[in-house]
Amino acid sequence: MADAHSIPPRFILHETEHWILNHHMASSLPGYLMLGSRQGAHSLADLPEAALAELGILLARVQKTLEQQLQPKWLYISRFGHEPGYPIHFHFIPVYDWVETLFWKDERYRALQVFGSLESAQTATDGAELTLFIWREFGESPTPPAIQGASIKDVTARLRLALK
Question: I need a surface site. Which of 54, 122, 138, 140 has the fewest CB within 10 A?
Answer without folding.
Answer: 140
